[in-house]
Design a protein that fits this description.
The complex is a heterodimer of chains A (563) and B (281). Chain A contains 20 helices and 20 strands. Chain A has 563 residues and is an alpha/beta fold. In chain B, 76% of the residues lie in helices and 0% in strands. Chain B is built from ten helices and no strands. In chain B, α3 runs antiparallel to α4, α3 runs antiparallel to α8 and α8 runs antiparallel to α10. The two termini of chain B are 17 Å apart. At the A-B interface, α14 of A face α1, α7 and α8 of B.
Chain lengths: 563, 281
């Protein structure tokens, strides 16, 4: 008797024009007690809609068009509000993507759990507290007594996710839904959380539906996998079989698009011989956030928060330098300093042997033209009021001083280079998909005919297949224009794919610099080794306590200004 | 595309449509009043205080025998004009100060915002009354006083919106293109604040019409013999027991306009707000 039986589920959304878009189209699967099922797909494939439907919930505008969900003997869609409330929490629990937004700011994390235990399991306050502490212990939170009294913003992202998992486990649900639970976390923290869930599975008999865009995760976590596309199931089977030998074309493309840490790059970089002399040299760069003025300063010294310390590296002409690190490592700050958005507190930047002014606005236009920056979020990097044509021609005319006619011609060439239709010149950014927006942003950067482009996590907001396409196009553009590139990413696979040399950063310091292939194949640095192990989902990445970020302290590991 | 959906949303909200109809009716009457009003507004044409429905005088006459319908039709012109010019100037000035404060930041932002805080600490109507008593009763002074008193609130709202735009990639990219602060203001920031500016304008319009009427009622606004609703109420209050309609009619005109403006601007804000939120996600 399966614990969960989904039959021919069909869910649609009604849009502004009152048309129904089918988000989930005839999906059916079942789940045995204690089994872990992965649902994998790119954004918009309907996987989160399924997660919500399992809880008997739909986003506003959502509508069940057909099918049924049977969960431990209950038909979810036939339940009334009270029965649904009992179902949620007691039989099914969800661990959402962003733990911070699912915890209330005004309650301590202990109070969150205690409430659940008192409400759903009817425990007394004292009993509930004892149970909470043991749940915190089970989810590996350090010093449960201390964490109990903390508010959500006072603990790190990984700890928050542990609290949410503890809350999900509070009533020993028959089914636990994990909706991209580690997407917001660093690779290191991610591995710890994944290991935790894996270990908990062995102890309790909870079935798991694991929703993710990342096939390597399901391979690590799940027994079976469903691959979804456009609301339909494309392929299903054993996790490792799908990962190693996918049958369907779509799945094969999906697996092929994953940048691998453990394999040599598939893409061809600009040949080593074609790289020129030094283009950019960064010397002893430092940056720190000064503490906000506060009363406390009158009584004790408040340290400024060091973000970047003594960072030095150089980039040769046409070379791609990868900058890799976890959030809070200072890599985006380095990008902002070089581009001139944020003046450094110490050190200097030499571009073509000349010292650059720390503030971008003060640099000569020619220098501004030669260094271009591409941002992480493609939509917010394009002015929503301007058509793509205006965005491109404006940049071309501003930097190259050509006529509008010539600028338009060049814009057309750029669109063709990035495999975008010429009709996009008249479109607004909002009318394009994320990948298309990012390609426009790349076109804008290359419009200036730069010598160096700085890519700050430019593919981390994109789906894996779109990422592959954007990387292909970026590298083609680089080859065509002989442009150097500083490529910042938290994804080691992407870094291996694009960069000649790699710089590893941690806590604002450079850990290691080296030729990419040499570094990936046989690094001696323990931190780099650890990152590589975590990226390959190897269990040994967890047994290195010195790299656990901030365990036991109340310093949040993600900082709001970091990407 | 975006305009079409905004318009769709407005059409689907009955409140907004009623509001728009009221505003449109008032606007048409105010614009064409000199041609459609049956009598000259300042001349005495009948017996004083003729009741509603008197032949030749549809809405009767006032306390000295002027045609009330004509005066009501003309009575909105001055207040609407004063409110419109004052708010247009106020919102334009506020937009400039607010967006530049958000973009430039630092001491400039601090100074602007502390002045705003100080001004917000003075009760609005008292502030206007002070200026009018100081500089005398004229339309120009009234426009200045009202415009000035509405600026601090508008600056706050527009600045808070602009603050969310300044850190976005396209503004930063514009900075790195080395273009002037003025062009960044004009091409990148202002167009993306236009929705909030429109809503500010519409919302403050209704309250400033009330303010003009209140000032006229207090004898600080528009001076006789120019017909004005607030002034007409003030005059009719003296005879309220004999002729209550003389108070109620101008009140009705003020409230229909203000309610219309509120409904229209609320609906507009909703329609635009939803649109903007959709675009960002």
């Amino acid at each position: 008797m399966p614990i969960l039986e989904v039959k021919d589920l069909k869910v649609g959304y009604v849009d502004v024009q009152r048309q129904t878009l089918v988000a989930v189209d005839g999906v059916g699967f079942s789940l045995e007690k204690g089994e872990a099922l992965g649902i994998v797909g790119e954004s918009g494939c309907g996987k989160s809609t399924i997660a919500r439907a399992l809880m008997g919930y739909l986003r506003p505008g959502g509508e069940i068009l057909g099918g049924s969900i049977e969960l431990a003997g209950n038909f979810v869609f036939d339940l009334g509000p009270n029965a649904l409330r009992n179902l949620r929490g007691e039989i099914v629990a969800i661990v959402p993507q962003n733990p911070l937004s699912s915890l209330t700011y005004h309650m301590t994390v202990g109070a969150h759990l205690q409430e659940i235990l008192q409400f759903h399991r009817g425990l007394s306050a004292a009993h509930a507290k004892a149970e909470t502490l043991s749940l915190f212990e089970a989810t590996g939170l350090p010093e449960p007594e201390t964490v109990y009294k903390r508010y959500p913003h006072q603990i790190s992202g990984g700890q928050r996710q542990r609290v949410v998992i503890a809350a999900a486990l509070a009533c020993q649900p028959a089914l636990m839904i994990l909706d991209e639970p580690t997407t917001a976390l660093d690779t290191t923290t991610e591995m710890q959380v994944l290991k935790l869930i894996k270990d908990l599975r062995k102890k309790i008999d909870t079935a798991i539906v694991y929703i993710t865009h990342d096939l390597t995760l399901t391979n690590y976590m799940c027994d079976r996998v469903l691959v979804m596309h456009d609301g339909k199931i494309i392929e299903q089977g054993q996790a490792d079989t799908i990962f190693e030998q996918p049958k369907e074309k779509y799945t094969r493309q999906l697996v092929a698009a994953i940048p691998r840490v453990d394999e040599p790059p598939k893409r061809e970089k600009i040949a080593e011989e074609q790289l020129g002399g030094k283009l950019l040299e960064v010397k002893e760069l430092s940056f720190a956030y000064k503490p906000q003025w506060s009363m406390a300063q009158m009584f004790r010294a408040v340290d400024s928060q060091i973000v970047v310390k003594n960072v030095s590296f150089d980039i040769r002409k046409s070379e791609t330098l990868g900058l890799v690190g976890e959030s809070g490592s200072g890599k985006s700050t380095v990008a902002n300093i070089i581009s001139g958005l944020q003046p450094p507190m110490g050190g200097g930047i030499y571009f073509a042997n000349e010292l650059l002014h720390p503030r971008g606005e003060k640099r000569p236009p020619e220098v501004l033209r030669r260094i271009q920056l591409i941002f992480q979020d493609p939509l917010s990097s394009l002015n929503p009021r301007h058509r793509v044509g205006t965005i491109l021609t404006g940049t071309i005319m501003g930097f190259l001083g050509v006529s509008r006619r010539e600028a338009t011609d060049r814009a057309v060439v750029l669109l063709e280079d990035l495999e975008l239709p010429i009709g996009f010149l008249n479109r607004y950014p909002r009318q394009l998909s994320g990948g298309q927006q990012q390609r426009v942003a790349i076109a804008r950067a290359f419009a200036a005919n730069p010598d160096l482009i700085i890519c700050d996590e430019i593919t981390s907001a994109l789906d894996v297949s779109v990422q592959a396409q954007v990387l292909d196009l970026l590298m083609a553009m680089q080859k065509k224009n002989q442009t150097a590139c500083m490529f910042i990413s938290h994804d080691l696979g992407v870094i291996r794919e694009v960069s000649h040399r790699t710089v590893v950063m941690r806590h604002g310091l450079i850990v290691e610099t080296g030729e990419t292939e040499a570094l990936f194949e046989h690094t001696n640095d323990p931190y780099t080794k650890h990152l590589l192990a975590a990226a390959q989902r190897r269990d040994d990445s967890i047994d290195q306590p010195q790299f656990r970020l901030n365990t036991g302290s109340n310093q949040p590991s993600e900082r709001p200004y970091q990407s | 595309m975006s305009e079409a959906t905004t318009w769709n949303r407005i059409q689907r909200s009955p409140g907004t449509m009623i509001g728009l109809a009221l505003v449109l009716a008032h606007a048409l009457v105010a614009i064409f009043a000199p041609w459609i009003a049956p009598y000259e507004v300042t001349s005495i044409v009948g017996f004083p205080m003729s009741p509603i429905g008197t032949p030749d005088f549809l809405l009767g006459t006032d306390n000295i025998g002027r045609d009330y319908l004509s005066r009501l039709m003309m009575g909105g012109r001055t207040s609407i004009f004063v409110a419109l010019v004052a708010i247009a100037g106020s919102v334009a000035g506020a937009s400039f100060l607010a967006i530049s404060a958000a973009y430039i930041g630092g001491h400039y932002d601090d100074i602007v915002m502390r002045i705003v805080d100080t001004m917000l600490a003075i009760p609005g109507i008292l502030f206007v009354a002070l200026i009018v008593t100081g500089f005398g009763r004229s339309e120009a002074v009234l426009i200045f006083a009202i415009g000035f008193s509405y600026m601090p609130g508008a600056i706050r709202v527009i600045r808070s919106h602009a603050l969310t735009i300044v850190p976005l990639g396209y503004v930063q990219a514009a900075r790195l293109r080395g273009i002037s602060v003025f062009r960044i203001f004009l091409r990148e920031l202002l167009p993306n604040c236009i929705e909030i500016i429109t809503v500010e304008f519409a919302l403050r319009m209704s309250s400033s019409i009330l303010a003009v009427s209140a000032l006229s009622f207090l004898g600080l606004g528009i001076s006789p013999p120019t017909p004005d609703w607030g002034l007409m109420i003030a005059e009719a209050v003296k005879t309220i027991y004999a002729a209550p309609m003389l108070v109620l009619l101008p009140s009705l005109f003020i409230s229909t306009l203000v309610v219309g403006l509120n409904l229209a601007s609320d609906g507009l804000a909703n329609a635009i707000g939803l649109d903007a939120a959709r675009g960002l996600n």
